[in-house]
Amino acid sequence: MSSSIASSTVESPARKRSKSKVQERRAAYAFVAPAVLLMIGFIAVPVIMSFTLGFTNARLGSPNTPEFVAFNQFIRALTADPTFWAALRNILIFVVVVVPLQGGLGLVLAVLVNQKLRGITAFRVMFFIPVVTSMVVVAMLWRFMYQKDGLINALFGFNVDWLNNSTTALPAVIVMSVWQGVGFHMIIWLSGLQTINQDLYEASALDGASKWQQFMNVTLPGLRPTFVFVFITITIAAFSLFVQIDVMTQGGPANATTTLVYHIIQMGSARGDVGYGSALSLIFFIIVLTITLIQRVLTKEED
After folding, report:
1. How many CB atoms lie within 10 A of CB 160?
2. If you placed Cys at 131, which of 30, 163, 184, 283 could pair as Cys (CB 3.0 to 4.6 Å)?
């Protein structure tokens, strides 16, 4: 009798393990819950609202109930909004120029700072400083430099109002954006360079390969995964161009620097046309998703 009572009061190992797993599961849910709530509140809910409002005529502050208008907002963007097409043209130019230029310069800098030389860490820090500086601060600094009496004209003897000229405004923004972001991609390329087995370089040197041959046959193949990551991230960042435009040009002159994100925010927030802004957001999402998938297919490794 006493033995049966003792056995009932002592938990079995299996029951202890089960209780421990339950406690671990509860702790895991407790740690994950804040992140999940934030993602739901700031990502899932806005996305759902954007999909919903894009098919309505909703406006901020309007006393009228939003009405379902089907695809009218999308048709409006494609047929009756010249600013949309100007923004699309500008952002495509920006992407075509910035993606290869920023990625290529980042790779060149990474190769240069990947040398075992005294003081090389200082150069890495110098190139990376613009990345950790606020984009608003950088944009304001370059806006002053681009003024007619600014540093750029003083250094090179020009007399150009860079940001108020429709011919030079977008190239000026491109130069600033490349300068600000190249340090980040330099670090990414550098991390990829340091994962390549140094024995491959030694073996190729023994076979008589030059530095250029080593770069083409050892470095570039070893950087393929990094290449995919860098160019996809640059593309997404280029399409989301906003801060530089908002601080430096406000989309002018004559929509010469307007981008899709800037146009979306202007329509949705400044003008209160939430339905149309949401429709533009969906178009923007489809464009970015399509280009990213195309990039991914083109850079996919063969089996």
Report:
1. 16
2. 184
